Amino acid sequence: MAPSFLSFISLYGIYIRRCFASSGLTSQSIDIDNETTIHLWAPKPDQTAQEQKPALLLLHGFGPSAIWQWRRQVQFFTPYFHVYVPDLVFFGNSTTKSKERSEVFQAVSVGKLMEKLQVKKYHVMGTSYGGFVAYHMAKLYPDKVEKVVIASSGINMRKADNTALLKRSNLENIEEIMLPETATQLRTLARLAVSKRLNIIPDFFLNDFVNQLYSENRKEKMELLRGLTLVTLTGDDTVKPAPLQQDVLLVWGDLDQIFPLKMAHELKEHLGKKTRLEVIENTSHVPQIENSAQFNNIVKNFLCMLSLI
């Protein structure tokens, strides 16, 4: 591994943190109880008191920490919202002594965080794994969570969908896809998650990416993958997540190979009449990165419009 001062990933990480800081957010670590500490980027308390804006909580997906997944959303949404961007437990600098590993535990932890920050009401947006957490937050805190955005998140995933994903990846287990250890495995993840081909990127760059962003807390992250509780299989291998009482926006890339678009249409039916689906063409699993302008405008229009009846 290259020394950090020669690492492009390390240097780009410095740039991203400056982007968050220039958007008015500060890096904070908060003990939410005697076992768990959550790191996040958030406005200063005096800033929230001075400016009356709605709150928006961004929940990242599996992979690198939050700053790597939400930069363009932070820069876009901070003029309109007080934006809160936590690292979920075992990502970034968020840690716990608890043995809990489910997405329900993640949701409870973020709920405690928002209570500590004295944010009484907020919209929540989650991508991929963060969408699982966002769904549970909406269920657990219906009096606090206002609108919900779920992006590229197959919370209705069935056993057959898992099998099909492994077949598309030519790998034997989900951990090899979501927690790459080599440049080859990272190429596989990129092929599934990004619409553009990254064949010209050299292995040393991908290895730097893996070493810098995927090497920490691997054991605990594997336990998080195995701890997903939302998907409950019935006898006919169907999943029906309960409807949400909030207005819900689903945002999907039409080329998503992690959670294919058909899952978005199925999820829309499960979540009820107050759910709408927006599809962004020529994007895959990370439309918030591949076409951030369209993604951001879709989400802003949804959050700012009057609630559905």
Question: What does this protein look like?
Answer:
With 309 residues, this protein is α/β, with parallel strands linked by helices. A hairpin with a 4-residue loop joins strand 1 (26-31) and strand 2 (36-42). The protein has helices at residues 8-22, 45-50, 67-77, 103-116, 129-140, 159-169, 174-178, 183-193, 203-213, 218-226, 261-271, 287-290, 292-304; strands spanning 26-31, 36-42, 55-59, 82-86, 95-96, 122-127, 145-151, 248-253, 275-280. The relative contact order is 0.14. The chain is globular and about 50 Å long. It is built from 13 helices and 9 strands. Helix 1 (8-22) packs parallel to helix 3 and helix 8 (183-193) crosses helix 9 (203-213). Helices cover 43% and strands 16% of the residues. Strands 1, 2, 3, 4, 5, 6, 7, 8 and 9 form a 9-stranded mixed β-sheet that branches.
**Beginning-to-end CA distance, first to last residue:** 55 Å
Which stretches of 5+ consecutive residues score pLDDT under 50? Answer: 1-5, 231-236
Beta-strand share of residues:
15-25%
* Multimeric status of the protein: single chain
Along the chain, the helix and strand elements come as HEEHEHEEHEHEHHHHHEHEHH
The total of beta strands comes to 9
Helix content, binned percent = 40-55%
Mean pLDDT across the residues is 91
Number of helices: 13
Radius of gyration: 18 Å
How is the main sheet built? 9 strands, mixed
The shape is globular
